[in-house]
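Reopening: Response regulator still failing for me.
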Amino acid sequence: MTTIRVLIADDQMMVRQGFTVLLNAEPGIEVVGQAVDGLDAVAKVAELAPDVVLMDIRMPALGGIEATRRITGPAGATVKVLVLTTFDLDEYVYEALRAGASGFLLKDASAAELAQAVRVVAAGDALLAPNITKRLIAEFSRMTGAPCTPLKDRVGDLTERETEVLSLIAQGLSNAEIAERLVVAEQTVKTHVSRILVKLGLRDRTQAAVFAYETGLVRPAGY
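Support: Ran it again with your exact input. Result attached.
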């Protein structure tokens, strides 16, 4: 079993230590370091090469959003960022997703939820808590105004079926649910998802969902 290497970035020592204890007790997960703020997180990622960063949003020196942008922005960056927040509709979470985060987790999550979230984000093959993430993306995409034309042009690189799959990803459907909806094999859906991510230069399904909302391919309910 490949061990998932985790870095915890939070300015509260009790949060860092608590999550470290919980995750180190899980098979296949190892906390390789802790960061006290965003600048420390960026430096520790370069030093320790974790697979997943648990990133608090509100931190001194450098906030979690800018830290996420710096960590995930460089070409070839593979580390995934899982945002920690107190509220499931925190407006800053949407900005973090736009900055490159792969999902988010409430700080009061159970040990099992925490471990599952880390595994899901590390795998990059499913939205984290799709019902919540979808609602958050939809809510705050309303703030972005008109769809971005350059992004809309990139949708043209997709085939009709890939565009359909992208729309269903943004609606929070899993590969199995998409396969059932389109009456195709789940492996076929996985192939479509991989091609979508490559064509659009996206890292994972969460980024694909953000892209779909920002281009206007999927609109929030009521819009």
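The mean pLDDT is 83. If you still see a failure, please send the error message rather than a screenshot.
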